[in-house]
Amino acid sequence: MNNPKASTSTSTSTSTSTTTILFFIVVFLFSSSSAFNITRLLGQKPDFSSLNDLLTRTKLSDEINRRQTITVLALDNAAVSSLSSQPLDVVKKILSVHVILDYYDVEKITKLGVSNKTSVLTTLFQASGAAVDQQGFLDVSLVNEGEIAFGSAAKGGALNSKLVKTVAEQPYNISVLQITAPIRVPGIDSGSPPSAPPPHKAETPSAAPVPAPKKSPVKAPAPSKKPVAPAPSKKPVAPAPSEKSDAPAPAEDGADSPVAAAPVSDGPTAAAPVADAPVSDLPTGSAPEGQVVDATKDVTGGAASRMAAGAGLAAALVSCLVVII
């Protein structure tokens, strides 16, 4: 027969062994999933209470605790106060730059600075995907006489913060190192790095002023198809010779008989008769020499008188035509 007490004892021991194994499995998984807790580490350091509060509010503490190996560049209460005026999302970006995705204690990071003039380290901000260009990287360099300095690797960044001391550490999992000031990252508050100033453009000559369009001249009225004759002048253009004035006939060597010019009127005027010079009664053949000369003078004087009379008639005709037109 089977002993019931022995069966009960065997079952109890088996259950205990199973429970123990499950307990160790849970502990192992928990320790594997979270090798440290940044909030608990900083909770033991009153000088870093403000930083611990910001890590909790921005949820960065959860992201840090999910990592296996990490280095936190910690700011004490005085140094972190300069971030209090920034929006919480900007504070999260700035603090994520202070989390290096590898384990560095003081000894390891000092060797890094000595062996290399400048080393570049990757931060949690780079892993977030929000970094632009080199904003998610840090420059580490040895300055002065053995001092370790940190600065942004982004364009325009500077080594503005220095290593102070170790705050807390769990070898090969987490190292908390104190630094003097927040690392300044150009453009992190706007999401993009400051762009370089645009190249200076040569000044282009200003365009010549365009004159305002001139108004088109007013066209003169079109001439009438039928020509309009000018109004006749009331006064004759050429003055009429006086009726009583005697036009002296040009005579050479004192002509004996002057000839009177015909009067000119506004109407058509007939040609005035011109008196012939008196003909000498003396026969031509028997005339003395002195008389022949006088007769010649008389003939010449008569021709000149006729020319003067013709000129007067022509002037009268012109005056009449002007009046008629």
Automatic annotation (TrEMBL):
Q: Where in the cell is it found?
A: Cell membrane
One Pfam entry for this protein is Fasciclin
Q: State the species of origin.
A: Trema orientale (Charcoal tree)
What is the protein's membrane topology class? Lipid-anchor; GPI-anchor
Give the matching PROSITE patterns. Answer: FAS1
Protein family (similarity comment): Belongs to the fasciclin-like AGP family.
Q: Which residues form the FAS1 domain?
A: 35-124
Q: Where is this region: Disordered?
A: 187-293
Q: What keywords does the record list, in alphabetical order? A: Cell membrane, Glycoprotein, GPI-anchor, Lipoprotein, Membrane, Proteoglycan, Signal
Q: What is this protein called?
A: FAS1 domain containing protein
Q: Name a GO CC annotation attached to this entry.
A: plasma membrane
Bias (Low complexity) ranges: 215-242, 270-281
